[in-house]
Amino acid sequence: MLKKLFGWGKNSAQSQDPDALRLGVDIEMNYCPSCGDEYRADIEQCVACNVALISGSEKLAQKREKEKAFNGKSMDISASDQLVTIKNGKLRDLKPYQILLGRQRIPALLSSEAGGCAKG
Ligand SMILES: [Zn+2]
Questions:
Q1: For the segment 43-67, what is each residue's pLDDT rounded down to a tens digit?
Q2: Residue 29 CA, ligand 1 centroid: distance in Å
Q3: Are residues 47 and 82 both part of a single domain?
Q4: 45 Cα to the center of ligand 1, angstroms
């Protein structure tokens, strides 16, 4: 009896692409390229945006591309990069900003007003 209940209807999820699961895309659904809304496969147009939907596998390919570009971004700051000051304050107050930016793969450095640089 127990055996019959376990794994009931879970077979389709298992055969899915692990990337699809990780990136939150159901390849059997359609997606709006504009707002990202998820639709049943038989619906071809987004009701909100009035644009043609893309298939789940197209959406997945797009997400993969984005992720690749994101992970490939350089975290180095070269001499030719333009630097902008986004926050002034004490080092311990600024550190969280650097960490937040780093999560978005935006390189940041902390520098003292004297021009010395406390990278890291
Ligand atoms: Zn839409």
A1: 999 999 999 999 999 999 999 999 9
A2: 14
A3: no
A4: 8
